Amino acid sequence: MNGAILRDEKGEPLREPGACKGVKAIGWFIEEYGIAQISMNITKIRETPLHIAFEECRKSANRRGMRVTGSELVGLVPLQVMLDAGHYFLRQQQRSLGVSEEEVIKIAVKSLGLDELAPFDPRKKIIEYQLRDDTPTPLLDMNLRAFANETASESVAPGGGSIAAYVGALGAALGTMVANLSSHRRVWDHRWEEFSAWAEKGQHIKDALLRLVDEDTRAFNRIIEAVRLPKGTEEEKAARENAMQEATKYATEVPFQTMELALRSFEVAKAMATEGNPNSASDAGVGALCARAAVFGALLNVQINAKGLRDKAFAEDITAKAEKMAEEADRLEKEVLEIVRKKVEEQG
After folding, report:
1. pTM for the whole thing?
2. Scanning 79, 178, 319, 325, which has the fewest C-beta atoms within 10 Å of its C-beta?
3. Per-residue burial over 287-320, b = 16 or more CB atoms within 10 Å of its CB, e = otherwise
4. Which CATH number fits the domain 144-347, given the four candidates 1.20.120.680, 3.40.50.720, 1.20.1250.20, 3.60.21.10?
């Protein structure tokens, strides 16, 4: 950390390097509490991440027969700092890194003892969460029953596009689950990093698909808003038509993104059906079924929205690409299910 100023044999000042680069620290003993405290300012977070500074304090305390009981964060912290800390402690335990962002932060908070002195609220302490766009996510905020009830209601949204995205997220989640189970299987301790990498990939796909659940409904609502624009004059009609075309194009692009992501999840499902815990092969198979449903469900939305576009070149191009992805999803689903069937037979 700061290092120390020593004296050489001639009495000249000699600086002894500290344990951490880019860290200014000072320590003192608080008699009324019977504890020592170290206050640090990390000026070069990339050279000395928060968790490394914490670990150096812990090692120093251990050498002196003491232990670190907790820590406190004054001010705000970048999200990546917390994610890096969570991943560090997961690696220390040889646990899969492919868990949700919320879980990674929870692990970082617990491992760093950030909730020992007072509750640590990530929403108030992490910079990105403070700056995050407050765009509402009403569908994702619902419980399962409320989501199903809202879908079944006479409201036109959420519709097939949002459902396709959510089904795709569930498919990716299942592949991720098998990866995490495989990573923590005792007989495969030496393979935990291999499965952890697959779990991380699945988590990224799942999170991206979840964002599209509400985005698809927002895209549809943009079309409705455009339709309701005034059309009393020629200028208003032109503006309304332009808004409708832009909204329809976006409503075509969003389900196309769902198709791309759901198609990527087949890679995780296939790998886990082949290499993952054989007891969970059926889960990988269900993940593949969900992925195909997401791809074909989103395809229908691409096709119907593209029909309303005046830009026929764009419409034909995106539809052709979407149909090709659907063919690929068909092929991949068959491959995964064949692998799963063989694994199920072997289990019998």
Report:
1. 0.88
2. 79
3. bbbbbbbbbbbbbebbbebbeebeeeeebeebbe
4. 1.20.120.680
